[in-house]
Every structure is written in C-alpha cells, then in structure tokens.
Amino acid sequence: xxxxxxxxxxxxxxxxxxxxxxxxxxxxxxxxxxxxxxxxxxxxxxxxxxxxxxxxxxxxxxxxxxxxxxxxxxxxxxxxxxxxxxxxxxxxxxxxxxxxxxxxxxxxxxxxxxxxxxxxxxxxxxxxxxxxxxxxxxxxxxxxxxxxxxxxxxxxxxxxxxxxxxxxxxxxxxxxxxxxxxxxxxxxxxxxxxxxxxxxxxxxxxxxxxxxxxxxxxxxxxxxxxxxxxxxxxxxxxxxxxxxxxxxxxxxxxxxxxxxxxxxxxxxxxxxxxxxxxxxxxxxxxxxxxxxxxxxxxxxxxxxxxxxxxxxxxxxxxxxxxxxxxxxxxxxxxxxxxxxxxxxxxxxxxxxxxxxxxxxxxxxxxxxxxxxxxxxxxxxxxxxxxxxxxxxxxxxxxxxxxxxxxxxxxxxxxxxxxxxxxxxxxxxxxxxxxxxxxxxxxxxxxxxxxxxxxxxxxxxxxxxxxxxxxxxxxxxxxxxxxxxxxxxxxxxxxxxxxxxxxxxxxxxxxxxxxxxxxxxxxxxxxxxxxxxxxxxxxxxxxxxxxxxxxxxxxxxxxxxxxxxxxxxxxxxxxxxxxxxxxxxxxxxxxxx
Length: 592
Description:
Layout: H1 5-9, H2 12-15, E1 19-23, E2 34-37, E3 51-55, H3 64-77, E4 81-85, H4 96-105, E5 109-112, H5 118-153, H6 157-168, E6 172-176, E7 181-185, H7 191-195, H8 198-203, E8 211-214, E9 219-226, E10 229-237, E11 264-266, E12 269-271, H9 274-293, H10 300-314, H11 319-328, E13 337-345, H12 370-388, E14 393-397, E15 402-409, H13 415-429, E16 446-450, H14 460-473, H15 490-497, H16 502-521, H17 527-536, H18 541-547, H19 552-566, H20 573-590
Parallel strand pairs: 2-3, 3-4, 4-5
Antiparallel strand pairs: 1-5, 6-7, 6-10, 8-9, 9-10, 11-12, 13-15, 13-16, 14-15
C-alpha cells in the first residue's frame, strides 16, 4: 500500500531538488510509510519504522562517531531512507563517514543539491500514501463483498478459488491435509509447472502460524476448517522477491513489469500486503462454510472426482487439464490403460433395494432424500471395493442412479483380471448386489457394466459412455453376470440405447400405432398383449393361446383382428420380425 523510496525520488517536488543517491541503493525498494522532517540527532527514539527522514543537517553531530551513531540508530528502527538537503550544514556533499555508515547498514542516503521546500515533498508523498490506503480500503471492501456473495450463493470450491485468483492476480491452490490438490487457479500462469511435484513442494511450505507467509517459497498460507477441525490449506503465491518455481532458491524480482509498490517489510523481509492476507482468510472461511453446508453431500475429494468424470463424459474440459488435476490428487491417468465402469441398481424405486436409512447414523443426513442417500451409499461401496481390489481410478456418481469408475491400469493385459477382482470385491462389500431370482417379479441387485478399454485419456469418455449405455440396457436383464459388456446386451439392449432416437420412435408408431390406438379405445381387450404372446412363442399359436390364458378359437379370432387392424399377414416371417422388433423398441421407449 506504500510507495517505495525509488518512487518518492521520482516525484516532481523531489526531482526539483536534483536528488543524488549517495549510498544504500539496495534499499530503494523499501516502502515509505510516512515522511518525517527532523533536525535533532536523537530523532530515532521518536520513529516507528518505515519513515523517510528529511533533514538539512543543521542539528546533526559534528564528530564522526556521532554521525555513525546517528545512521546506526536510524537503521536500527527501520527507517526507509535519509534525505539531506545541501546548502545549510553541508555545502558540497554529505560527510564521507555518513555515506560509509549508510552503505554498511544498507540505508538509502540521498542528497538534494538544490533547496527544496520540504512541505512540498511531504504533501506529495502523503497524498500517494492516502490514495494507496483508499485503494487498499476499496479492494478490501470488494473482497468482503465478493466472498459474502459467494457464501450466500453456496458457490462451488472451483468458483471460490477462481474469484480469489482474479482478485489477487496470483495463483491460488486449495489442498487437503494429505497435500493433494482439491482445486486451483493458475492466474494465467502455466498450470503444469504450478502443480509439478506439488506434494513434495507443499510439504516444504511450513509457515509459522495459522495464516502466515513463507518467504522461502513465496506462498501465503492459511488453514481451512471450522468448529476446531481443519481439513485443508489455502495457498496464494505472491511474487515478493523469491524464486517462485517449486524447489527454487535464487532470488528474483517481480516479472511482467509488476512493481513492489504494495510490499511491506517485517524483520527486513518483504511480506504480502494486508489485503492479500484478508483475501485468503475470507476465501478460506467461504470454503469452510460451504463444506459445512454440504455436510450431507459428497466429500470434496469425491466432488472433484465427479467433476473430472463429468468432464470426460461431456468433454467440457481439455483432457490435459483432467490429467493434471487427477495427478494433483495422486492419480495418474496418462500413459495408462483406461476402462470405464458403471455400477447402478436394477430398479428405480429406492424401496426396491431395501431401506435407504443411513447406516452410519449421520445426523446431518436425517433429512436426505432416500434416493440421494442410496446413491451416496453406493458411491461409498464402490470406492471401498476399489480399495479392497487394490485398484486406482476416478469414481463418483455420474447421474441420479449410477456410479461411474474410470479404472487406470498399467496395461491392457490386466483388464479382465482387474474387472473380475473389482466385481468380486463389490459383491463381498455389498451382499445385496447379486441379481434376484429369475422368478422374482421385483428387480433388485446391482448391475456392473464395463466399456471397452482404451489406451489414452482422450478416448476415456467413449469407454465411460459405453459403460453407462450398457448398464442402462441391462437393467431388466436377470442373468447373473458378474460384469455386463456390450456383447451381452443383444437386440433389446441395442434398442434401449437407441430409445431416444426419433427414427426408432417413428418406426414403432408406423408398425404398432394403429393397434395402440385400438387398445386405447378398447381398454378391456388389450390386443397388444395377444400379439406379444404370439411373437414371444415363436408364432406357435397353441403355445401362445396357453400363455395368454385364452381358448384357441378366441386367440385365433384375436389374431385375425390384429391382422386387420395392422393390415399385415401374421403368418409372414418378415412381417412378424418387424412387429417383434417394434415391440422390443416400444418396451425400451417405455422404460425410464
């Protein structure tokens, strides 16, 4: 918030005095907190540090020892610099002993070779300071307003981090206590370089205090948590005169033309401006509040998994970014054999698969929707099965009914073995995961569906989409298959995958529309059931009549009526094949 000595020397009132730097060039970037005019040798006792001292020298000691002590006292209290106007006490220049002492202490010593009204200098500098303070106040007010709005809106962690990076212009990273990155914004810097070797780099960032700046690494850090329980750290990288690359140690100044006009100095070290400290603390409190609000929802790690899986399914993020974010979580997806897996319940009604009560008894979930609780339980079960099978991958709910997994395997040779181990672990963890008895009228159990394995992350979305489609198509399949794959779903599965296709719906209406309209007008007859029995029995009229619980004459009469309504020959193989496909498609369309 304060101008530096260098900036003060560039002001017009100072330049009119023909300033010349005598010593202490290294301290020109020190901030000037105030300007103080002094003509007495013991002025240091009245100063608090950060002042630029102006003097004509008329009250300074005459002996060398006194001048050395005067400079040492000023440096000791941390003044920003000393400006001496020539002409009254010193005619041609300040004493050499004074310059030497200032050089030893790194204190900027400036001569004004022309007479200059000190009041003009103090007015100009104080105007800069007040203006900077107002700017800082406005910035702080915007920080409070922005994060208050985010808290009220229940913003997602990614949005909170993005806003923090936008307001500060600095990279921001949110990590958990295991040093895994939960969210980040590189603030126009290279994200790969920012997160390269993050865990090792983060463990070297050890500031003293709950919110503190680590000058060795250049990161401003605050803990994130609430109710006495911390669960992460929020880090903001501030370009304060250190090498900002992970593991770097060489000092460097700010880049891209940035200045240090907002720097402060504590113990001789530059520290971030107060507004940045306020910013990270407000951002941290917003994140903590958001976690409390979502206490009955997914954990944040699982939310990130869901974000990445959704990005692969919907192609909403570049795959390089997905790989980078996954790697920051400790999961390597590039140069792996990837297999999409989807696990879902066979039924839609939570009651079909047992009670939805939370077995853990979390009071925060007392009012949760049964379906949401069931889905969350399924996600936890899938995650536990992955751990038991010693497999790694992204896992989270991908819609309201299904949990997706992207398995990351070392090579394609281990695909079947890994899927078998996962299915076995899931069924050990979830005893109700097996399908019901074929005679049961109620669907139940779990479906585990896998897509085709792929060799790159760019193709992972295809594997996940295939797994989801297979899982949907297999919902009514009562076979006890450990894992469903595309060859298992057959014609009914294919039609289920195409159920939203307008051309398929048009085909159904063309083939069966007249019969459906007839049944709508005659609800007691329901000729569609008669047609279904005939086709499912392979056009064996006697077997079909028995399956429909009708006498053969009554069944034959109904078939004749169906033929007239649809204007087809029900003895024709081709016509019956078309009608059978239309019936299967109708079932697929009617299945949610």
